[in-house]
Amino acid sequence: MAKTALVISAHSADFVWRCGGAIALHAQKGYQVTVVCLSFGERGESAKLWKLPDMTLDKVKAGRRKEAENAARALDVHDLQFFDLGDYPLEVDRAAKDRLVDVIRAVQPEFMLSHSRWDPYNTDHMHATQVALEARMIAQAWGHNPGGKVLGAPQLYLFEPHQTEQMEWKPDVFLDISPVWEKKWAAIQCMEGQEHLWHYYKNVAENRGNHFMRNSGGQSGGRRSSHAEGFQSIFPRTVDEL
Question: CA nearest 231: which of 184, 173, 162?
């Protein structure tokens, strides 16, 4: 049975910039990675599209969906789901939370990925992570929809926000994505509505590759890394040796 992972993305582009490498790398290792986009980012993260003539909300959503689907194919995403809850602000009611719980229980992820817990520039991001934590908790509850398969205790990794020092995000994990960098770069270029971010996140990946090498001497054999992604874990990790 294939291992699984779950990404909970506030908007339809977030999973590409922030953990596209992790998605592609684990897909290459045989994981089935499910991505849930809570919104399309149609109001707040689609300025380039809104500047086009005769633009409508439905047209923006359709454009964002197409970009995300193209990026997901580039990254070998197993299942891409759009909740279409709206953005700026992102509002997640109980029905939507229960829907997310159903996804979590169906996927039974080895690990989960979402945003930093604090983001004063974009409260949709931190709201998505609060919802992810709540849904993870509910999915573990035997009394929620009794008879269903409850969740174990997957790690929740917080992927890198745009301005780390303002968002109280401190990485404790660096993942070498050098083997799949070209896949992530191809996915990034699918996000045509936010072209201004392409080279920013290319630079982030290069910097994290450097940080991976600085820290990999006794852990990863001191190997070279051209590109990496950073993550902050929420829960303690259990080990048998250090």
Answer: 173
Q: Return the SS3 of 179.
A: helix
At 161, the amino acid letter reads P
* Residue matched to tokens 């690990």: 111
E-assigned strand segments in the chain: 4-9, 32-37, 79-82, 111-114, 155-159, 173-176, 228-233
103 three-class SS: helix
Of residues 137, 38, 124, the one with CA closest to residue 88: 124
Integer Cα distance of 10 and 36 in angstroms: 8
Residue 11 backbone phi and psi in degrees, to 5: -125, 170
Angle (CA) 46-85-57 rounded to 5° is: 40
- Residue owning tokens 């689609």: 46
Rounded distance between C-alpha atoms, residue 226 and residue 234, angstroms: 26
> Cis omega (within 30 of 0) on the bond before 120?
no
Q: How far, in Å, CA of 186 to CA of 167, rounded?
A: 28
CA-based Rg of the chain, rounded to a whole angstrom? 18
Predicted confidence pLDDT, tens digits, the chain (242 residues):
899 999 999 999 999 999 999 999 999 999 999 999 999 999 999 999 999 999 999 999 999 999 999 999 999 999 999 999 999 999 999 999 999 999 999 999 999 999 999 999 999 999 999 999 999 999 999 999 999 999 999 999 999 999 999 999 999 999 999 999 999 999 999 999 999 999 999 999 999 999 999 998 767 777 899 999 999 999 999 989 87
Using a cut of 0.90, tell me whether the model's pTM lies above it: yes
The pairing of strands 79-82 and 32-37 is parallel
What is the Cα–Cα distance from 38 to 100, expressed in whole angstroms?
9
